[in-house]
Target: Dihydroorotate dehydrogenase
Amino acid sequence: MIDSNQNDNHINIYEPHEWKHSTKVAGVEWKNPVGTASGTFQYAAVRWFYDVSQLGAVSTKGCSPVPWEGNPSPRTAEGPASNLNAVGLQNPGVDHYLEDDLPKLKKAGALVVANVAGHCDDDYMQVVAKLADSDADMLEINVSCPNVTHGGMSVGTDPVALSSLMDKLRPMTDKPIIVKLTPNVTDITVPARAAVEHGADALSMINTVLGMRLNIRTGEPIIANKTGGVSGPAVLPIGIAAVYRTRTVLPDIPIIGIGGIDSGEKALEYLYAGANAVEVGAAALFDPVAPLRIARELDDLLDSRPELAAKLAAGNTWR
Ligand SMILES: Cc1cc2nc3c(=O)[nH]c(=O)nc-3n(C[C@H](O)[C@H](O)[C@H](O)COP(=O)(O)O)c2cc1C
Model:
């Protein structure tokens, strides 16, 4: 049955839900362990479908010091159980974010993770300086985008550059800093350790996996950027391994698991790998309600797993 919500002008397709199982990420309580993954959530679109305050958190599109146009089209290609994108961090800039997106999300009651993009250290610093006194609940530093030529993944694959960036950002804010890592490395625990040793309060992983598709009619790349980032169900095992391996070497750092989650069961798999919470990305491109559906599925799955649920609620993890 369609249920309209009194507080906002959206139609909520779900009945209101009493969340049973919360989690904590770097001391911040999430009402459930499921958030949206950056770049796949747009408030203007989803507000018609559900109440965003129902999510554990909302990670917003990466924002840069000035508006970025992103890469030329075509920018996406569908693949086997996957989505290839090279959007290139198109966004209207941090000032617009502070005037428009963030106040709307906070008014709607969302717990907001502000995702930060940059082409160089100075870009990241300018954005963090502006977000430091904002209403954002947590910051997520994207050092993992494969679709920009400077910054992004070039920082996340270089532990020295990442350490140096964190040394600059850490003193700028008391807000919890999540560092979002790329799977496009031999050993993700190396940048993970660098981020933690230089002040990260939490890690999120994975961003997209570098990939490419060719048009067999022309023999040329399908997307204009040539390469892009792979997301969706195909990357699930890569994300699970990243979380599991990182948890093994960094037993105390909060981890947000990302990659290929399209059901409560897959979210649960990340929690068993050692994540404190998860973010849902590409699944929301096909089904805007996916993050909330998955949160509800997970809430029920945790009923029969009281030991895991208790650990998460206390800010601990399964392993
Ligand atoms: C269209 C698109 C745009 C994205 N934009 C961002 C972004 O701005 N910042 C970021 O940190 N990650 C971005 N990502 C990566 C996702 O947040 C996520 O890490 C990745 O897609 C893997 O999760 P999934 O398999 O659930 O999609 C984007 C992904 C997609 C598909």
